[in-house]
Specification:
Residues 1-23 form the signal peptide. This protein has helices spanning 2-24, 28-46, 50-62, 68-79, 83-94, 101-116, 188-193; strands at residues 119-126, 131-134, 137-138, 145-149, 152-159, 166-172, 178-183, 211-224, 227-228, 232-242, 249-265, 277-293, 298-312, 331-344, 349-361, 381-394. The protein is an alpha+beta fold. The N and C termini lie far apart (119 Å).
Length: 395
């Protein structure tokens, strides 16, 4: 009886052991499916379909495939140049208990190499020629340049004379390429002085330059009502205040004086004037304008203004009183609009060009307009012109 009980106990133990082993081992059908998926994955890898291969190798591993399925996934991520995912797959591979020492050593070596890969880092600045410091160490050449940056976080500083330094941080991971593109901002002194973007030698220190004084000479082509005049010499003086000298778009307000010589005008546009008598029209205006920095040295802008103009000089017409001419020519409301561009020659001196200036006002009192005169100067008096001169930036 005792022998029978012992035999039954041994049999039960053997059955239990077989059941436990069966529960731990993969199902036979799963193993077959895993092998099929592995073969499909190998074929997809050879054909360059790495995404499909990753999906197939992972599915094979989940069905009980060997640890080599994870190694295959690592190879796929490496071919796709996705080092982060390759590192994650290597970490999972190293957790497998069935790895041989040589396999584990190779996986560790590859994981360390992934983490140690330097990142090619490109530095592009506007303007070029800036010095790059990585963790306080200067690069061997100015921008644009490309250098390898070791893995980890790094402090970047970019310097160029006449510009504010730029500071930022980058993190190099798994050899990923990094692009640092920076538009440098001129210092206030360099902006107001028109500092050179090439050499930076024109930058100066000190307060921003808030006043602009300019003097220009040029030619106006006038039209006095229906009387078309020839090109006449003209001059302009302006004093402007810059509200925001450190900005890219400058806003200004100021005063402008303008003068135009009519020479020996014949026939005379006014009944008080004798034919061929020379005269000068002078005016003063209050102006407002803006200018945009096309570069640290070049400004392009425009202004508008309103004021008054008067006509001075000119020989009196002896018959003026008999003809009933007004005793005074009076003043006329003067309007002004103009375009201008300037370039810095020194920190304080600029060459200024006004390619197009328009001014207009009503006719002065006494404008000739009725027969027997051949002149009708009673309409709008206006002129177009261009001028050129110099401007001084004052602090």
């Amino acid at each position: 009886m005792r022998s029978l009980v012992l035999a039954l106990s041994v049999l039960a133990a053997l059955v239990g052991s077989h059941a436990t082993a069966s529960a731990q081992a993969p199902d036979g059908q799963d193993v077959v499916r895993a092998r099929g998926l592995d073969q499909q994955g190998v074929r997809a890898f050879r054909e360059g379909r790495y995404r499909d291969a990753i999906r197939l190798f992972n599915a094979a591993y989940r069905l009980g495939g060997p640890s080599s399925e994870i190694w295959n996934v690592v190879r796929c991520y490496q071919r796709l140049d996705e080092p982060e995912d390759a590192a994650s797959a290597l970490a999972l591979y190293l957790e497998q208990p069935d790895l041989r020492p040589s396999e584990r050593a190779e996986a560790l070596r590859e994981l360390q190499e992934l983490h140690r890969r330097p990142s090619p880092t490109s530095f592009d600045t506007d303007p070029i020629g800036a010095t790059v410091f990585v963790d306080g160490r200067p690069a061997a050449s100015p921008t644009p340049l490309e250098i390898d940056v070791s893995p980890g976080a790094h402090r970047i500083r970019i310097e160029r004379a006449g510009y504010h330094p730029h500071e930022s941080k980058v993190e190099a991971r798994f050899g990923r390429a990094i692009l640092v593109s920076v538009k440098l901002v001129p210092t206030s002194a360099s902006i107001d002085a028109g500092g050179s973007p090439e050499g930076g030698t024109m930058a100066t220190s000190g307060p921003a330059r808030r006043f602009l004084i300019s003097a220009e000479g040029g030619l106006f082509v006038p039209r006095l009502g229906s009387l078309q005049g020839s090109a006449r010499p003209a001059g302009h003086l302006a004093l402007r205040y810059v509200f925001n000298p450190e900005s890219r778009v400058l806003l200004t307000a100021g005063l402008r004086a303008t003068a135009l010589s009519y020479g020996g005008t014949s026939p005379a546009p006014l009944c008080q004037m004798a034919n061929g008598a020379s005269s000068v029209e002078a005016g003063g205006l209050v102006t407002a304008g803006f200018a945009v920095r096309a570069s640290p040295r070049i400004r392009i802008g425009a202004d508008v203004g309103v004021g008054a103009a008067g006509l001075f000089g000119g020989e009196s017409n002896a018959e003026a009183s008999a003809a009933g001419c007004p005793s005074s020519r009076g003043l006329a409301v003067l309007g002004h609009a103009g375009l201008e561009a300037s370039i810095a020659l020194t920190p304080a001196l600029r060459l200024i060009v006004s390619p197009l200036t328009f001014q207009a006002h009503p006719a002065f009192r006494g404008a000739r307009e009725i027969p027997p005169s051949t002149v009708d100067a009673s309409g709008l008096w206006w002129r177009l012109g261009s001028s050129m001169g110099f401007a001084f930036d004052a602090k």
